[in-house]
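Quick one, tokens below:
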């Protein structure tokens, strides 16, 4: 069985970061080790959240694992709080990276053209240097613009997206996928560029766009991508699986009558759709990396 290390916070309430990565990647048949960077009562979409910084714990925990000769097939990083923390995460990647280790970075910092609360321009620089350590990155459109210095345009067209991908490709060898991109009406998904064995391929993965925006779907997307890659799916199929799963889960969530009174910050009903995902991944069993 493959083993993934995921480095991100624990937001107790709100179904994002470690509280979606752990159940989803585990259910996909991949051992998941969490390294919590901070403990929050709820993610920052909830006003007045508590925050306990755990960054001083990260290296001692990683050093313990090193003494135990632990091996990781992938390191997946999500929301990180500070520049200092990103520096520590880079050190941990260096500690565990071997030939063939998947290093997937979701440079969580911005959306809808704006940086999230508490992040500055120097955080963007630091996040770009983290992406340089990765061989798979999944920024959204805003993050892609910040990482490449390109202007933010919601309807930029294919040439614009290809230019963005070329910029991201300079940052990270491997695969760059820009999330939240719909290429036609009623669709959303990713556009991506992958460099494998010196060959460059541009592709997109699309699914039905449900015009609702729930918290944590980016983390669910990245988690499914990591799980599928670990189970032997090639990049394009892993990304399509994640795009389809998020679309289906948003639609199931929107139809849930028991959600009355709960808004989008409570996240999606991924628990309801997880069995379908597990069946799909297991049906592709012949190439499973188990
Ligand atoms: O879902 C991304 C995320 C993760 N963790 C925390 C967050 C956010 C986004 O706002 O606040 C603490």
């Amino acid at each position: 069985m493959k083993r993934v290390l995921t480095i991100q916070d624990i937001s107790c309430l709100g179904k994002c970061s470690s509280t979606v990565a752990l159940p989803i990647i585990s259910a996909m048949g991949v051992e998941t080790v969490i390294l919590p960077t901070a403990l929050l009562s709820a993610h920052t979409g909830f006003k007045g959240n508590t925050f306990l910084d755990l960054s001083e714990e990260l290296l001692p925990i990683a050093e313990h694992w090193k003494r135990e000769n632990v091996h990781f097939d992938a390191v997946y990083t999500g929301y990180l709080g500070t520049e200092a923390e990103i520096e520590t995460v880079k050190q941990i990647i260096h500690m565990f990276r071997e030939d063939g280790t998947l290093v997937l970075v979701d440079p969580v910092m911005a959306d809808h053209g704006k940086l999230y609360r508490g992040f500055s321009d120097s955080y963007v620089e630091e996040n770009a240097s983290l992406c340089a350590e990765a061989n798979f990155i999944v920024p959204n459109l805003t993050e892609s613009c910040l990482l490449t210095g390109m202007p933010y345009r919601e309807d930029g067209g294919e040439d614009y997206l290809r230019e963005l991908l070329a910029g991201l490709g300079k940052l990270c060898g491997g695969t760059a996928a820009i999330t939240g991109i719909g290429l036609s009406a009623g669709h959303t998904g990713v556009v991506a560029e992958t460099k494998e064995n010196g060959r460059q391929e541009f592709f997109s993965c699309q699914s039905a766009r449900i015009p609702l925006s729930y918290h944590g779907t980016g983390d669910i997307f990245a988690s499914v991508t990591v799980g599928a890659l670990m189970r032997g799916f090639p990049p394009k199929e892993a990304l399509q699986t994640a795009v389809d799963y998020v679309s289906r889960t948003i639609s199931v969530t929107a139809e849930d009558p028991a959600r009355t009174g709960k808004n989008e910050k409570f996240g999606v009903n991924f628990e309801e759709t997880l069995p379908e995902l597990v069946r799909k991944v297991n049906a592709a069993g012949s190439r499973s990396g188990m």
